[in-house]
Predict the 3D structure of the following.
Amino acid sequence: MGGNAALWLVVPERAAKLLEMPLLTGAALSSQMDIGALFLGAATFAVLALITRERPWFIAAAVPILGAAALRTNAFLFHGAAFLADMVAIEIVMGSILIIASRVLGHGYPARP
């Protein structure tokens, strides 16, 4: 996640290619760079989770990742986008690991039943 965020900062052409999208120009490129912010935020939350072992940081890291999987799937089901099964699978696995880690490694806040 952090690596992808760094690519958006330094080599956006490569970051866009890894996500199977063309690099846009002008105002669209500025909006496209928001993807880097998503990955940077998720990576930051994951690092905070590992450092503090507090459950909310694990969940905060999982939400944008699982949200990306949900929106990719929505784009496929309802808007004619190609289904990128490999990316959706990675996002679901990573998000699930973070949710499980929140239960196993997390502390500081009681788990809700």
Remarks:
- The chain has a mean pLDDT of 91.
- The CA atoms of residues 72 and 78 lie 10 Å apart.
- DSSP finds six helices and no strands in the chain.
- The helical segments are 2-10, 12-18, 26-32, 34-52, 55-79, 85-104.
